[in-house]
Specification:
This protein is mostly beta strands. It is built from one helix and five strands, in the order βββββα. The chain has one domain. Helix content is about 15%, strand content about 45%.
Length: about 90
């Protein structure tokens, strides 16, 4: 099962995309597929993204609000579907 965990702070949006193990003994095994942050929402901040394969992106961006932060994070992931083995595309979000 894939789990998307989102944490919204006072001026940040962080996420982790995790693949959880199945039932039984392996249920506690997890695999980190991607994680990222949009920092300093409402001012000149930055967007950071790291995929499972270690690819790391960071760029400055003025992000107005949490809606825009969410959209930018999904677009960053969707532009790298071959590098994030999540098995599904976030382009639909």
């Amino acid at each position: 099962m894939k789990v998307l965990a989102i944490n919204c702070g006072s001026s940040t949006l962080k996420f982790h995309l995790i693949e959880m193990g199945g039932e039984g003994v392996t249920a506690r095994l997890e695999r980190w597929l991607a994680h990222g942050i949009v920092d300093r929402i409402g001012e000149n901040g930055f967007i950071e993204f790291t995929a499972e394969n270690g690819e790391h992106l960071k760029h400055t961006a003025a992000v107005a609000d949490y809606g825009e932060a969410t959209q930018r994070q999904w677009l960053t992931m969707a532009r790298r579907p071959s590098r994030c083995s999540a098995g599904w595309s976030l382009a639909a979000f």
